Amino acid sequence: MSAEARQSTCVAIGNRAILIEGAPGSGKSSLALALIDRGAMLVGDDSVMLEACDGWLFASPHPHTRGLLEVRNLGLVPHDCTEKVAVALVLHLDGSAPRYIEKAESIAISGVEAPLIRLAPHDAVLAIKAELALQRYGLPV
C-alpha cells in the first residue's frame, strides 16, 4: 500500500509511535519537544508519512520536513529523527477533552484502527500525560 501524508506530529518512545494531532497552534510541536526532552525520538513534525502494512500503521518523516522541528519563537530547528515506527497511539490535543475516560476512543487511519486519547493542550504536565496514555492505552508492538 502507498504512503499518505498527514498533517500531524509524531514521536517514538521505544518502538512505539505517538501520533499527535490537533488544530494549528494547539501545541503539537511543543508536546513533541517536551517528549523528546524526556527521551523520545522525533519521527516528524507538522507532516508525517503514514503507511498501512500487515494490520499496522507505520509513521515516517515527510521528505520535505525530515529532521526539522518547529520550536515556537526560534523557528525550524534541525533535529535527529527516526524512520518507520509503528503507531501505537493517537493523541488529539483538544480544549474540550473529557476530564475522565474509561477507555480509549478508536480512530481508523488508512484502514487501520488505533486507540485515540484526547488531551487538553497547553498543560504543564502534558508530556507526562502523553507517556501515561501510551502506557495505559497504547497498542503493544
What's this model, at a glance?
The chain is an alpha+beta fold.
Protein model, in words:
Keywords: Kinase, Transferase. The protein has 141 residues and is of the alpha+beta class. The chain has one domain: Rossmann fold, CATH 3.40.50.300. The chain contains two helices and eleven strands, in the order βββαββββββββα. Strands 1, 2, 3, 4, 5, 6, 9, 10 and 11 form a nine-stranded mixed beta sheet that branches. The protein is globular. It starts with a strand and ends with a helix. The mean pLDDT is 95.
What does the average pLDDT come to?
95
Regions with pLDDT < 50 over 5+ consecutive residues? none
In the CATH scheme, the class would be Alpha Beta
Shape: globular
- Helices and strands: which structural class? alpha+beta
Order of helices and strands: EEEHEEEEEEEEH
Strand elements, count: 11
Q: What is the rounded distance between the termini?
A: 20 Å
GO molecular function, one term: ATP binding
Protein name: Serine kinase
Pfam family, one: Hpr_kinase_C
Organism: Novosphingobium resinovorum
For this entry, give a set of tags.
9-stranded mixed beta sheet; 43% strand; P-loop_NTPase; two-stranded antiparallel sheet; 141 residues; ATP binding; Hpr_kin/Pase_C; Rossmann fold; transferase; alpha+beta; Serine kinase; 2 helices
Which SSEs are present, and which pair or pack?
Elements: E1 4-6, E2 9-13, E3 16-22, H1 28-37, E4 41-44, E5 48-53, E6 56-61, E7 68-71, E8 75-78, E9 85-93, E10 105-109, E11 112-119, H2 126-137
